Amino acid sequence: MINNKLVTFTTGDIIAFKIILHNERGDVLTDAGDFIKMWMTEKGAGSVGYVVDYGNGTYIGVIKALWSGSPHIKISLSFPKESIGLFVNYIYRNGMLRTLKGVFKNARGETGKGLCGIHTLTKHGICDFTSLNYGMRWFCSLPDAPGFKCSDWYAVIGDMTVSTFTKTQKHFISSTSNKIIKEIKVEVHGDKTIDHPEYSCRQINPSVTWNISSPVGYFYNKTWHNLLCQNTVEPSYNRYLSCLRNREIYMVGDSTVRQWLMSMAEILNLALSVKRTSAALRGYHHSIKACSKNKRDNITVTWAPHEFPFFTYKPNATIHNFKPARYHLNVIRSKNPIVVLHWYVHIGLVPLSVYEEHVMNAKDSIVEFLDRVPGAKIFIKGPHNLEHNNGVPYDFVRYLQDKIIFKIFDNIKHKVVYLNEWDITVASESKAIHPSNDLIHQMVHDLLSYIC
């Protein structure tokens, strides 16, 4: 039930709704914990609101009218608390939502597999690989067959045959999650859009980007408009080229960060170190470089997968491909590098304490790195909206991950830019693990607005 009788507003108005949830019998819910999402959309336009949980089954949804038109406000139940409970209980009981196995190969050429994870789930032949994971906990058990030792570990592969939730649990999660519970058409009169910020993104203090309140931007005419600062960069080959000439860009994360590398390679006509299309790169976890074809431009973009846990279902990369921010920051030698770091989907499959451990490890290495390379620009790519049937309540995961990283980076947020990808993906109604190429281009353009 939504309590708000007004349907006509003026550009800049704050629109608030009282949201009361009911169960399937129609009874009003009196407890908290459900995750609700709210956004406004119209052809070529979109923005995000926020929802406050009052702890008694009542929620307040708040959204700002950022442009004039006839948009729809959509409110969805992202995940009920029962689905969140299933997820949390499973990962704390089993360590990870998905099964990952270590691949071992001994001197005789024999291969075998052993269970890997963030803690020891078995007493059989445990190998402690925490030091190989740069101090972040990681263990694998030896294969059941004799003749293997820990030094024989060389790759990992996911095992999708291992069941997680029961059939009943899976049905409950799929039938109750990511459901639109209300859609309201409103009329917004007045100015075409609200006023834009005065200062360019390159001029602002990075601490401004650590803004916990939505919206931080909105779509209008299919273009993302930043509300924290003004993007003054023309999205053109020549403008990007002049900005990035003689620069090195390092990106460490998952395949969504690899999409950023592919976007920059396309925009700047860079030569890739691998001859594969974006689609063919799915599941490819070797480091990738993109370099200027004209050596005078001297632009290099490098992507590498982050450390374990990293779930892959194609054993085409050895364990030495998966390294954390600390490793990559230690090998950077340029004076003005651009560094993008990201953790989300893979580390979202494990307890939150693991995410905290990895972010702390990265933060400490960033402090050391900036002391050594003060001309570097560091960016944290935040989580994006996605809807997947794997049982992960990503709205919940994102909410808690943001709380942790905002707290950990609080004393260096004036040196690091936080890129809010949640608002841009919710506003555009993007639901895929891998956002569209058009949306990736908008994200990269937003990144470059803080550099150029």
Kindly state the number of beta strands: 25
Instruction: Please report which band the strand proportion falls in: under 5%, 5-15%, 15-25%, 25-35%, 35-45% or over 45%.
Output: 25-35%
Largest pleated sheet: 7 strands, mixed
- CATH H level of the largest domain: which superfamily? SGNH hydrolase
Tally of individual domains: 3
Structural class: alpha+beta
Shape label: globular
The total of helices stands at 9
Helix content: 10-25%
Rg, rounded, reads 23 Å
- The low-confidence runs, each spanning 5 or more residues with pLDDT under 50, are none
Strand order of the largest sheet: 20-21-22-19-23-24-25
CATH architecture of the largest domain: 3-Layer(aba) Sandwich
Question: Roughly what is the average pLDDT, rounded to an integer?
Answer: 93
CATH topology of the largest domain: Rossmann fold
Domain NXPE C-terminal: 224-452
InterPro entries: NXPE4_C (IPR057106), NXPH/NXPE (IPR026845)
Protein name: NXPE C-terminal domain-containing protein
Organism: Mytilus coruscus
Overview of the structural elements:
This protein is of the alpha+beta class and 452 residues long. The protein folds into 3 domains: 2-84 and 177-193, Immunoglobulin-like; 99-159, no CATH class; 206-449, SGNH hydrolase (Rossmann fold), CATH 3.40.50. It has 9 helices and 25 strands. It has helices at 81-94, 167-176, 237-244, 255-268, 325-331, 352-372, 394-408, 421-427, 437-449; strands at residues 2-3, 8-10, 14-20, 35-42, 45-48, 50-53, 58-64, 67-69, 72-79, 99-105, 111-117, 126-128, 139-141, 153-159, 179-185, 187-193, 217-220, 223-226, 248-253, 270-272, 288-292, 300-305, 338-341, 377-381, 416-419. The strands form 6 sheets. It has a 7-stranded mixed beta sheet, covered by helices on one side. A 5-stranded antiparallel beta sheet has the order 12-13-11-10-14, with no helix packed on it. Strand 10 and strand 11 (111-117) form a beta hairpin. Helix 4 (255-268) packs across helix 9 (437-449), helix 5 runs parallel beside helix 6 and helix 6 (352-372) runs parallel beside helix 7. The chain is globular and about 75 Å long. The N and C termini lie far apart (47 Å). 42% of the residues are buried. It comes from Mytilus coruscus. It holds the Pfam family Neurexophilin. Residues 224-452 form the NXPE C-terminal domain. This is NXPE C-terminal domain-containing protein.
